[in-house]
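Me: I keep going back and forth on a fold encoding question. No explanation is needed for now; the record alone will do.

Assistant:
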Amino acid sequence: MTPRIRERPASTPPDTGKLVRYGGIAGIVGLVAWGIGAAIDPRRALGAYLFGYATVLTVALGALIQVMISHVTAARWFTVLRRLALDVAGAMPALLVLAIPILAGVHALYPWAVPASLPPATRVLVARKHGWLAPGFFIARALFYLLVWIVVGVTLRRASLRQDAATPERAAALARRDRRTSAIGLIAVGLTLTFAAFDWLMSLEPAWYSTIYGVYVFAGGYLAALALMATVGWLASRRGGALDDAVTPEHVGALGKLLLTFVIFWAYIAFSQYLIIWIGDLPGDVSWYVVRTRGGWGALALVVAAGQFAIPFLLLLPRALKRHPAVLGALGAWLLAMHVLDVYWLVLPALDPAGIRASWLDVAALLGIGGAATATAAWRARGHPPLPVRDPYVEQSMRYVEP
């Protein structure tokens, strides 16, 4: 017998209102505290803000990319989780506004914006990149990236919501349009995410570069987005409702296999970048790793390597653990914490090369940006069912059996 979606009096997950309220409070408290810190130590505060912003942004983009991949590959199993991923990506409009401090603080945050402050050798290298590393062009590119991400996310979200009130024929037409949009969107989002990683993160140390850096940032964000869906999906299913009926151990197992795949992929990209630079042994290239592999930063690198690869790799190998919702949910929360540490390791050594100098500004920035993004995503999810109830493949997705 075909499983049916349980109808609920309220069409949104039961905790949406709480997420809006608590996320909003966290966002206000965090951003106000960060603003006070910015008046005391502007550059350190901007570094903390960039860390928090990059952490949240990469998760939102990872969720958007997963939605597009599921459309392009016709991954029917993911249909029951697609609305959840779209809700995570729904934080993008808030992230447009939250980018203002970074764009306004270019001269304080990025050394290339003030060439006179650089050592002579680095100044020569930056001069060669002057056409690209110009504050005005940097801001214009950042706004373009954000616009692309918002347009793609809004287009896919609107199509999904329109299916809820569409006829079967119209819903099928919207599904075909989503596939075409996703094929184009994957290229656009993939390229803009890569260049944003170069612009916003890699250029903190303008003398260093890596062509694989953008893939590393993508892999970490995508893995964190899958981890967030595992955790939120488990928490939502525990409270009953449509997700409780629709998300089965078969879907959990498929998500677990995808998590295992990208745990390995992230480790492969991280090790490949390190190995190539280590083999080359060029002073300008190894400088980035010299800072990040000694003292406190070196210890943090080991924690991230173990926490984002070794431990989840071992836990995700057994089939029974991959199919257990509570285990996968807890592991998702663990991987989210590791993603925070990974981005911290990417960003903050550029400001504190001598060693880890943890600051309350880091917590305030992450709390403020994460809270504001959560409140925005939850607010945009109001009034909509957690499942795409008229999607032509939702019933097939609910009957999914893991191969």
Observations:
- Confidence is low (pLDDT under 50) at residues 1-14.
- The two ends are 20 Å apart (CA to CA).
